[in-house]
Design brief:
It contains ten helices and no strands. Helix 1 packs antiparallel against helix 2, helix 1 packs across helix 7 and helix 3 packs antiparallel against helix 4. It is globular, with a radius of gyration of 16 Å. It comes from Rossellomorea oryzaecorticis. This is DUF309 domain-containing protein.
């Protein structure tokens, strides 16, 4: 099966350098390009999963819990859609539930891996990971402040500009 390049990149960031912020960015850009009539809640769920883990790693347990709960709802919607993404749906949902349990139990963040069922997808993602200089399934580098605090350190000018332009456009219609 052929998967979108953005999804492959998401998997590389998720499992390689654990850059959940980039996971969010790459899938959100892809999601925006998809015709709204064909948008799957699973793309949103994967984005929410990455954002939830980003917040959990930063010890924002309230934000992490909210995001992961939303991810769980979106990813639970239709298991066959998750299977089309090469993931083992039951295992993924269990991993998210366990992570929510860990958050609620006050346990510290630890990296998780997505249960990739499609062996061709796994090989392709691992190879892309190697090409980018990352080691597949390495634990998150908790000493990397740039990685952990990317959201709060980034230049938000383009995001703010895009949102203002969208709001202006909406008001004109």
């Amino acid at each position: 099966m052929t998967y979108p390049q953005a999804y492959l990149q998401y998997l590389v960031y998720f499992h390689g350098n654990r850059d959940y912020f980039e996971c969010h960015e790459v899938l959100e850009e892809y999601w925006k390009e998809v015709d709204p009539a064909n948008r799957s809640s699973h793309w949103v769920g994967l984005i929410q999963l990455a954002v939830g883990l980003y917040h959990y790693r930063r010890n924002n347990v309230q934000g992490a819990g909210r995001m992961l709960s939303k991810a769980l709802r979106n990813l639970s919607a239709k298991n066959e859609e998750l299977e089309k993404l090469g993931l083992e749906s039951t295992a993924l949902l269990h991993i998210i539930e366990k992570t929510l349990h860990d958050i609620n139990g006050g346990l510290p963040y630890k990296s998780i891996d997505l249960p990739i069922k499609d062996t061709d997808l796994l090989k392709e993602a691992e190879e892309l990971c190697r090409k980018e200089g990352f080691t597949w399934c390495m634990p998150s580098d908790l000493s990397n402040k740039e990685l952990i605090h990317r959201h709060s350190m980034r230049d938000r000018t383009p995001v703010i500009t895009d949102r203002l332009n969208a709001l202006k456009k909406k008001r004109l219609t």
